[in-house]
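Exercise: predict the structure of this protein bound to 1-deoxynojirimycin.
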Amino acid sequence: MQTNPLWFKDAIFYELNVRAFADGNGDGHGDFIGLTQRVDYLVDLGVDCVWLLPFYPSPLRDDGYDVSDYRNIAPLFGTLDDFKTAVEALHQRGIRVIIDLVINHTSEQHPWFIESRSSLDNPKRNWYVWSDTDQKYQETRIIFLDTEGSNWTFDPITREYYWHRFYREQPDLNFDNPEVQEELLDVMRFWLRLGIDGFRVDAVPYLFEREGTNCENLSETHEYIRRMRATIKAEYPECILLAEANQWPQELIPYLEDDEFDMAFHFPLMPRLFMGVRKEDRADIVHILEQTPAIPERTQWCVFLRNHDELTLEMVTEEQRQWMWQEYAPETRMRLNLGIRRRLAPLLENHKGKILLLHAIMFGLPGSPILYYGDEIGMGDNIWLRDRNGVRTPMQWDSSAHAGFSTAESTYEPVIDDPVYGYHRVNVETQASDPDSLLNMLRHYIRVRRNQPALGRGSFKMIHPENQSVFAFERYYEDPSGHQTRVLVVANLSGSQQQVVLTDLENCLGTTPYDLLTDAVFEPIQTTIYTIDLEPYRCLWLQLHVEGDLMKEATSENLYENR
Ligand code: NOJ
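Solution:
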């Protein structure tokens, strides 16, 4: 693997649930053997890094986010040797691996908690947050609102309450305890020694608790993260740390600014992309981007459309939440906690134009995109499965039994089998052979995006044309050799033809726009006003070439082929 400490800034990430991806041993659960067999698929898709959801031993109360052993693999998913083989296979093909690090809490079945709850004077007592009253930290919100009525649960054994931000089966670790702090750094070392490239750190804002606060983003949490970064980077300089902090931009920025994380998910942006395309109006997207301060050069946003959780509506106003529920979750069963348990394709009515539009915008915005497994083929969901399992069903590889996912009699959750999204229609094999399929279109987008450093690294400036249905911005990048690239991203959020008049194009005079996505060459820009006609849901990535440049580009080195 080439050494480049900022590799993540140009990377395309792929969120992969080992359990859902491919079953290598025929027991109905995806595993590391299956993943190893499917590396070619990831290579063809063109992704640079996979983020593996938790695969540790776990009672699976929260689908693995309830860890009962930090230094092992759940037997269902294989062995440590299978894990090493998968990581090696991915690395050999140029794909990096980051793993989920769930440190805010453990499973109640973790031996530490079993000890901790066994008596008041057990040496592990202080590894968790105990109290003789459930009245502490009253200003703290409850996250799993549909299930939990309190962040405290009474434990009959020692007659005290323990603190948990998620399910009651997930007691929070006590980060005020230096032993806990040290132990989790050691857990990180364990996996780094096995060759992984970084961590997606789960539930970051909640590590510490303090009376009189909402127990989120406390200075103590920031301090611990700084320590984590300093320790880990000293030993593994290329390890990246990605923050899962579902917060407003102003709360997120410190995690990136102060020598803490390399990357952070941009949670507030995501629902606004859905608002934009439904309202056919860019206002909400523009508004959140205007509130997003610049971040340090060495850091990067992670942008995404969907993930393994409900589409979270925590970072929107109450009015926006009601609107999103009404528009995107008309049936009660589609709603969960403060979100929507549906996949990308059903949310967008299986409209290929809209799915591609949102990808083109996401790939164009500052940040590294993360795709959620299955969304690249437009997989559907099953809202009747428990919790968020309806968006975690087996990957649909082909039209054979269980979608080619498994040879078992039955699988951990049923494969999607409805008339629209069922595996007979929606699967990798069918789409791979159709040049116009969603899969092949997205492969193309990925390939173009990876060849275009302006999109990974360039500066970002919004353009404000009068037509509100058009969202437009400029990315500009000067590489170390002085080569300048300017790309205008111009997106029609609406389902009808739109004309957009771009103004203030002084910097672009004399250039010829060339759409990186379709290879279409546009009229040269000769005045500071330039008019473009956009088909419904069309997004253009217009690279601006000065005369003669088009020829040069055509023969220039292809970064994608040389990864
Ligand atoms: C965030 C994860 O994405 C979610 O799946 C999990 O339930 C919570 N953190 C608790 O670990």
